[in-house]
Amino acid sequence: MANIAALIAVLAATLLASAPARSLDTGRPDVQAFISELVRQDGFQQRYVTSVFGGIESKQSILDAMSRPAEKVKPWSEYRGIFITPRRISAGVDFFREHEARLRQISASTGVPAEIIAAILGVETFYGTRTGSFRAVDALATLAFDYPPRSAFFRSELRHLFLLAREEQLDIGTLTGSYAGALGPPQFIPSSYRSYAVDGSGDGRRDLLKNWDDIMASIANYFVRHNWQPGQPIATRAEFARDAIRPTGPTELVLKDTVGSLARQGVQFTTDLPATAPAILVALQGEDGDEYWVGFQNYYAITRYNRSTMYALAVFQLSEAIAAGTRTPVAGAGARPAGGAGD
Fold first, then answer.
1. What are the catalytic residues?
2. Cβ–Cβ contacts within 10 Å for residue 303, how many?
3. What share of the chain is helix, strand, coil (3-state, %, to 5)?
4. Nearest Cα to 342, choosing from 296, 274, 278?
5. Confidence of residue 20 (pLDDT cuts 50, 70, 90)
6. How do beta strands 235-240 and 257-258 pair?
């Protein structure tokens, strides 16, 4: 019976994976209401919106991918192994050297380290080589209308996609990206594209699909807008004093602690930041058991790009490896015991 059940499960999974996409039902009241809002509130032509929606497909593969992101289903020991690899590091060093002059210019003007910009691209899309093959309008519409847990968010992003296509003169039907509708090598969702993209090349456009000057400058601008602190550290490894109470449960992405308060709790780490500096204690499942890190404001800024403690640490560690490969300095741990300046 167990073998039969297993066979049925495999067949069911195969059928589900190969299930053809279905056209979005534009007669649904919620879809009709959304179309009406685009026309009435945003000034789109009815014929244009109807034409776009007539070609939208709702895809089960998008819903499946949304239910199992690596940040939620893998421990840090496995997640790290995806991104901190010799191949990804080597490709990052090559990317850095190819774009070094512009990366250094952007870093000098924004305070965001060049290796952080490169690492974001390395984690997101392997330096622009894996930007996703889903039509953005299909991805966002599938999640907007067939994924109830976050339908409001994705309906907002679908609206932003329409506005973005109009503002940047893009063909909405040909835009491709991730299963969540993120676009281009930096994987900006439409609202982030509209809010944080900049014209890094000076050609009058904000092209995050092909223009590397715009792409790199926009990543830096994203961090500037999320309070990146030039010259300050990102994160450092931590341990606990023998009698300290260790945390349980998932890490909250909130800067509720300070360097001094963590030190008083028995967290042992080094930094040059003052005791009043905001900090976050990160607990992860490493290869050899629990692994602890203290992240600072710049670590928190990376979590604004992707709301994941593992993502931020992967970006940080990849940036360190790229920096080492290119012999550039990287922000890291300081040299004074935490809380040493008093509180």
1. 124
2. 23
3. 55, 10, 35
4. 274
5. low
6. unpaired
DSSP H helical segments within 169-211, as ranges?
190-196
Whether pLDDT at 12 is above 60: no
Helices 309-326, 114-125: inter-axial angle, 10-degree rounding:
120
Q: Which amino acid is at 27?
A: G
Q: Helices in 41-172 by DSSP H: which ranges?
A: 46-54, 60-66, 70-73, 76-83, 86-98, 100-110, 114-125, 136-146, 151-168
pLDDT for position 10: 38
Partners of residue 177 on adjacent β-strands: 134, 183
* 178-204 confidence digits (pLDDT tens): 999 999 999 999 999 999 999 999 999
What letters, b where the CB count within 10 A reaches 16 and e where it falls short, cover 88-119? bbebbbebbeebeebbeebbeebbbbbbbbbb
Q: Look up residue 236 and give its two tokens.
A: 């450092």
99-115 pLDDT per residue, tens: 999 999 999 999 999 99
Rounded Cα gap, residues 233 and 277, in angstroms: 11
